[in-house]
Design a protein that fits this description.
The chain has 327 residues and is of the alpha/beta class. It has nine helices and twelve strands. The protein binds NADP nicotinamide-adenine-dinucleotide phosphate.
Length: 327
């Protein structure tokens, strides 16, 4: 689709995936509009797109954002900031009501032909097991129901896991070993590089076979989590990685405990929400259709190189006063 045939609006454009989707669409020659809550954190998008301000939790702020838009791509996610509410209410505000408000605005505009939404590979199957999935699936239900008249096509891209989520494994391994739920170790995932995912999201635009369907997407290699831990250890040159595991029941008990005291603070609610997510990861494989070419070992090596460079630069700057004193 050339820019003559309308523009693409990307929601969540300041996020990890959204910014990459904007970049990809720009490279492919699309006219891109980026929906941002604040232009302050959109410096990465400068020169790639037109910034449009709007907050999906305030439907009035969305009026007119889809004017002249042909495709809307929602990469919205819950970003918890200081002062934000409980994770469950944030998920309902952004992933459910916010996505629905954006879709309704897209439909009202009259020019939008396709609405693309980022889901998650486990979301449909496990919708009642985690509030984040439940909120997202409620939005998917609304969208698919309201597309039945054929006025707009819908596409849900369901990623497995992102490479960026494997960074924590790198950190833990370097700090002295992996600590986590034992059940996780033999579950599988095919994490995907954000650029490969952004390319797949861009491919869905006006592609007949992607319309009115869900597309489970993962990276080209499937690993057991214990293999990802070993890959991280190899990257750091660690021969024997220490693995300390906890049984599933301990996470469930902790979640139950934090849930019980969730009324005390949002922090406890976040912890319970996070524990539930860990239990889901540890009891399910997260695997989508193999897509893209970027490999996890290359990503790990790049990260390790960057980390070492930053450490060297820090060490040099710390030594500078001593060196100049010797002069
Ligand atoms: N991480 C994974 O492995 C994984 C796997 C499967 C699916 N997913 C899903 O993929 C999606 C994208 O993930 P991500 O990591 O790119 O998310 P992210 O980095 O957290 O970005 C979320 C984006 O949503 C925007 N946003 C939040 N609330 C908003 C509101 N009220 N109005 C307008 N914009 C709002 C944020 O804007 P601000 O900059 O203003 O906060 C940000 O641009 C998410 O839905 C996530 O659940 C992730």
């Amino acid at each position: 689709m050339s820019s003559r045939r309308g523009a693409v609006l990307v929601a969540g454009a300041t996020g990890h995936l959204g910014a990459e989707v904007v970049q990809e669409l720009h490279q492919r020659g699309y006219t891109v509009h980026a929906l941002v809550r604040s232009t302050a954190n959109a410096s990465r998008l400068q020169g790639l797109c037109k910034l449009v301000q709007g907050d999906v939790s305030k439907p009035a702020s969305l009026q007119g954002v889809c004017a002249g838009i042909t495709v809307v791509i929602s990469c919205l996610g819950v970003t918890t900031k200081k002062g934000s509410g409980s994770p469950v209410s944030e998920a309902n505000k952004v992933l459910k009501k916010g996505t629905i408000a954006l879709f309704n605005e897209a439909k009202r505009a009259g020019s939008v032909q396709q609405f693309v939404l980022i889901g998650s590979v486990l979301s449909r199957q496990l919708r009642y097991q985690w509030a984040g999935y439940q909120a997202r699936e409620a939005a998917v239900d609304h969208i698919t129901k309201n597309c039945q008249d054929g006025s707009i096509a819908w596409t849900v891209v369901d990623p497995s896991a992102f490479f960026k989520d494997m960074v924590n494994i790198m950190r833990l391994v370097r700090k002295g070993g992996f600590t986590g739920l034992g059940k996780l170790l033999d579950h599988k995932a095919n994490p995907i590089h954000v650029q490969d995912l952004a390319a797949r999201v861009a491919d869905t635009i006006m592609r007949k076979e992607d319309q009115n369907s869900r597309i489970p997407v993962g990276g080209p290699e499937t690993f057991k989590y214990r293999e990802i831990i070993q890959l991280a250890a190899d990257t750091w040159g660690i021969k024997e990685v220490k693995i300390r595991t906890f049984p599933l029941w301990s996470a469930r008990l902790l979640e139950w405990f934090f849930q019980g005291f969730a009324f005390i603070s949002v922090r406890l609610q976040r912890f319970a929400y996070f524990l539930r997510f860990l239990v889901i990861l540890a009891t399910n494989d997260s695997v989508g259709q193999p897509t893209g070419k970027r490999k996890l070992d290359v990503f790990f090596t790049e990260l390790a190189t960057q980390a070492r460079r930053a450490e060297n630069a820090r060490a040099t700057s710390e030594m500078q006063p001593m060196l100049s004193h010797q002069d």
